[in-house]
């Protein structure tokens, strides 16, 4: 059960790595992103597709560019991650009490 959660967190981490690179280097193509991030082409392509579906980036003739939603996501990321950490700590504390 938790292995799947870990896998999802790692995937989201990669998507965030890609979106940060798009914001920094836009417009940017898949091959350049792959080189910059040292990730396989197919993984970058998948992350870009997901980010585009969610509205965080859009395709342009020169490559991927970030949308205003990308800035909103990155600006609020720390608070959202803190909320997830709090939830996990609560789960951990409840488990410790039940042992």
Key attributes of the depicted protein:
4 helices; 8% strand; 99 residues; 2 strands; 77% helix; two-stranded antiparallel sheet; elongated; mainly alpha
Task: Explain how this protein is built.
It is a single chain. The protein has helices at residues 2-25, 30-37, 41-53, 68-98, and strands at residues 57-60, 63-66. The protein is mainly alpha-helical and 99 residues long. It has a two-stranded antiparallel sheet with strand order 1-2. α1 packs across α3 and α2 (30-37) crosses α3. The longest helix is centred in the C-terminal third of the chain and has 31 residues, at 68-98. The mean pLDDT is 94.
The number of helical elements comes to 4
In N-to-C order, the SSE pattern is: HHHEEH
The total of beta strands comes to 2
Distance between the termini: 19 Å
What class would the helix/strand composition place it in? mainly alpha
Strand portion, in percent? Answer: 5-15%
Q: Identify the strand order in the major beta sheet.
A: 1-2
Measured on Cα atoms, how large is the radius of gyration? Answer: 16 Å
Fraction in helix = over 70%
Ranges where pLDDT stays below 50 over 5 or more residues in a row are: none
In one word, what is the shape?
Answer: elongated
> What's the story with the biggest beta sheet?
2 strands, antiparallel
Mean pLDDT: 94
